[in-house]
UniProtKB/TrEMBL annotation:
PANTHER family on file: UNSATURATED RHAMNOGALACTURONAN HYDROLASE (EUROFUNG) (PTHR33886)
Identification of the protein by name: Glycoside hydrolase family 88 protein
Keyword tags: Hydrolase, Signal
InterPro entries registered for this protein in UniProt: 6-hairpin_glycosidase_sf, 6hp_glycosidase-like_sf, Glyco_hydro_88, PolySaccharide_Degr_Enz
Single annotated GO MF: hydrolase activity
Secretion signal, residue range per the UniProt entry: 1-21
Length: 372
């Protein structure tokens, strides 16, 4: 049985290698992005990862989808994607989700602010700014240790660095008020000081994994570091490249990029345990899509060398496209978790589609696509 399973894995990976040999064409990038976006919208309230109930529309899972879908909406040839997103905001009166301090419940603010930039309707952002003002003037004092009371009131798990900091950066950008950036910088630095492994240039998911080993390797979760890597990009997009704040994030970004380049598998994806390719051969598309997004963005912005990082983007993107079904479902998305686990071709999640759309937006530009 083990031999048969191994042969199946080898066959899948061999097929992926064939897909990667194809050149990337911008119109084909756009076509597959549309297919994934349309499929995910059509199945928005369905479950494909063993869950009994769908996610709430303001849940972080959907929020991550909105981040990618907003990028696709800016590329698409009609406004129905913007209208779909706007309907969600209208239905929930532009409120964030339930928990005041929890980063996961802030992520929909990224979509609200992007829509405000298009429609210039202050109702879209007022609840988010009001809530962030409350947080800023009543900051959480909790510790970063995992078992501390109310510990997730601060960014003590690496996923949080994708969810909340870009919202703070966007508010700073649209208001011009330094206080929002200062608050975000203080909290981001505290989180990084706690979670970042300087020797590996990677983030632990949270305190529980700092002392763990998996088959003799440190545990650095792929999607967790994907959240961080994409979050760095989304924050830097809001900052002046000459500012000291931008340079702080850029230093982390470059260190992570160099390390992640070393860790890409020959098949183009990244293993669910970044240092444990041998033990996690199954593809995983959510973390991998975020790395492709980050690499392509770095090349597009003159930060990463194209001759060094371009092949990784091409190999990675073609691998991701190979996991999209004819109908448009992105497979091999690891279900919700906090550590390396399992993924399969029939498992997907909305945040995986969001990561894929973010990656596609930058890959499209990298290969000559023009956004009107």
């Amino acid at each position: 049985m083990k031999v048969l399973r191994l042969l199946l894995i080898v066959a899948v990976l061999a097929n992926v290698g064939t897909v990667q040999a194809q050149d990337v064409q911008p119109e084909e990038v756009k076509q597959v992005m549309k297919k994934v976006a349309d499929w995910q919208i059509a199945h928005f309230r369905d479950t494909f990862s063993g869950r009994k109930n769908p996610h709430h529309p303001l849940d972080w899972t959907n929020g991550a989808f909105y981040v990618g879908l907003t990028k696709w909406a800016g590329m698409a040839d009609d406004d129905r994607y913007y209208n779909w997103l706007k309907n969600i905001g209208t239905e929930y009166e532009w409120e964030l989700f339930k928990r005041i301090y929890h980063a996961d419940d802030h992520i929909v603010g990224q979509m609200y602010i992007d829509l405000y930039r298009k429609y210039n309707d202050e109702n879209m952002i007022k609840p988010t700014i009001d809530q962030f003002d409350f947080i800023m003037y009543h900051p959480a004092q909790t510790k970063f240790e995992w078992k501390s009371p109310f510990h997730q009131s601060r960014w003590n798990w690496c996923d949080a660095l994708f969810m909340s900091p870009p919202v703070w950066a966007k508010i700073y950008n649209i208001t011009g008020e330094q206080k929002y950036l200062d608050f975000m910088m203080t909290e981001f630095k505290a989180s990084t000081d706690f979670l970042f492994d300087k020797n590996e240039s990677l983030y632990y998911r949270d305190e529980r994994y700092m002392s763990k080993v998996d088959n003799g390797t440190k545990v650095f979760w792929s999607r967790g570091n994907g959240w961080v890597f994409a979050g760095l990009v989304n924050v830097m997009n809001e900052l002046n490249p000459e500012s000291k704040e931008y340079k702080y994030f850029l230093k982390i970004y470059k260190a992570m990029a160099e390390r992640l380049l070393q860790l890409q598998t020959p098949q183009g994806h990244w293993a669910m345990s970044l240092l444990g390719q041998e033990f996690y051969p199954t593809p995983e598309t959510s973390g991998s899509s975020f790395y492709i997004y980050g690499f392509a963005w770095g090349i597009n912005n003159g930060i990463l060398d194209k001759s060094t990082y371009g092949p990784a983007v091409e190999k990675g993107w073609n691998a991701m496209v190979g996991y999209v079904t004819d109908e448009g479902m992105l497979g091999y998305v690891q279900p919700i978790g906090a550590a390396p686990g399992n993924a399969s071709p029939d498992k997907t999640e909305v945040y995986g589609a969001g990561a894929f759309l973010s990656a596609g937006a930058e890959v499209f530009k990298l290969y000559g696509g023009k956004v009107e």
